[in-house]
Amino acid sequence: MSTFVPGRHVRTFTTRAGQEAVIRYPRWEDLDELLALSNRLSQEDTFTVSSGEVISREQQAGYLAEAIKGMELQDYVYLCCFVDGKFAGGCGIQRNLSGMSRKRHMGIFSIALSPAARGQGIGYELARTTIEAARQTLPGLRLLFLEVYEKNIAGINLYKKLGFMEVGRVPQAVLYQGDYIDDIEMTLPLD
Ligand SMILES: CC(C)(COP(=O)(O)OP(=O)(O)OC[C@H]1O[C@@H](n2cnc3c(N)ncnc32)[C@H](O)[C@@H]1OP(=O)(O)O)[C@@H](O)C(=O)NCCC(=O)NCCS
């Protein structure tokens, strides 16, 4: 049975800057803040998939609908972090459904914060809370997997701190700000 409740609070913590942070599940009313972050990251041309494309409200509504459906089916966990009431970013773990039943035990990890929220311990707290939520709500999950661009030093360090290890590298897989750079693959077994 699904344990997903829109907007449910998971935990609070204090950031390094002394602000109160709340980690909770998303709800429909978050749509515009999710959209603003998606477009902010795309504009920034940072280490996420988008590089300048504009995401429409309709597209974002589709992503949120898919996320909610995935959580109801116990195939996805997505948690949001709000700092002093402002949306700071989100973290997701999506069951790998590409291999029918062969890869259902694998969760694909992703995280992104707004620029102002970075470097204050929020990514680490949000990531470890999402991993714990995935353990509890995605039955049969055994392994987390992610891809990170070789130039994303903050991301690579965060993942190592969480226990991920590099297991592979695809040379020149990513066109990043005019250069072809490597995509690093990392995994974290869940015992
Ligand atoms: C990557 C990201 C999620 C990290 O979150 P964060 O809140 O900034 O990271 P934290 O402050 O929690 O730091 C956790 C660890 O990450 C590493 N880290 C964070 N910022 C770093 C930086 N500027 N340089 C080097 N390492 C850094 C450190 O190991 C840090 O641990 P420490 O504080 O004990 O040294 C965030 O920077 C971000 O959203 N970046 C843009 C989007 C992105 O790259 N997403 C990931 C795509 S794979």
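^ coenzyme A complex. The chain has a mean pLDDT of 97. Strands lie at 9-14, 20-24, 76-83, 86-95, 106-113, 143-149, 165-176, 179-189.
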